[in-house]
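Q: What does the assembly look like in three dimensions?
Context provided by user:
Components: two
Sequences:
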Amino acid sequence: KAGVTQTPRYLIKTRGQQVTLSCSPISGHRSVSWYQQTPGQGLQFLFEYFSETQRNKGNFPGRFSGRQFSNSRSEMNVSTLELGDSALYLCASSWGRTGDTEAFFGQGTRLTVV
Amino acid sequence: GENVEQHPSTLSVQEGDSAVIKCTYSDSASNYFPWYKQELGKRPQLIIDIRSNVGEKKDQRIAVTLNKTAKHFSLHITETQPEDSAVYFCAAQEASSYKLIFGSGTRLLVRP
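A: Here is the predicted structure of the complete assembly.
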């Protein structure tokens, strides 16, 4: 069965631009979480979507937003990019149910802001 | 909310020796504790997990122990091999939200 797929794998953007990242979860999984990974900060939780609703949110500014579609695919958007947004963005999918919450990661999108 | 601390940040062992990585969590209601291995340039991979109703779980050379009273859990790797070299992350899941909170990671180097 196919794993979690993220597109694109690499992106280079200029400060002030916006970017949209995509995540296709494992078939049947309804929960998609997004993380920002940087060398100094580890894996920071951005938000989680479950059945098209944002169920959890981390401590990131409003420039970071997301959504989930009826097929559970999720997108993350970052507006007004800053140099500090350069990072690896990972999504993870799971069933999202009590007792059934193993999360599987995609390969990530490496975003470079110049 | 949940907070997870992980130690050590780096660990170097000789091939064949054991490695132990420790994590503490703050929310006593957290009930799920996975461990992930991330090799250079690759995605984090789930290697073992434990739920709060279990004290220990083993899978070949890897074991995880959980002490709910002390709110800490540990990863034990025995007979380490060079391919065990990677960054290992622990995580705790908030019972109320399903949110996974990660530790800061441990870079393990196994010297041949």
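Follow-up: Chain A has a mean pLDDT of 93.
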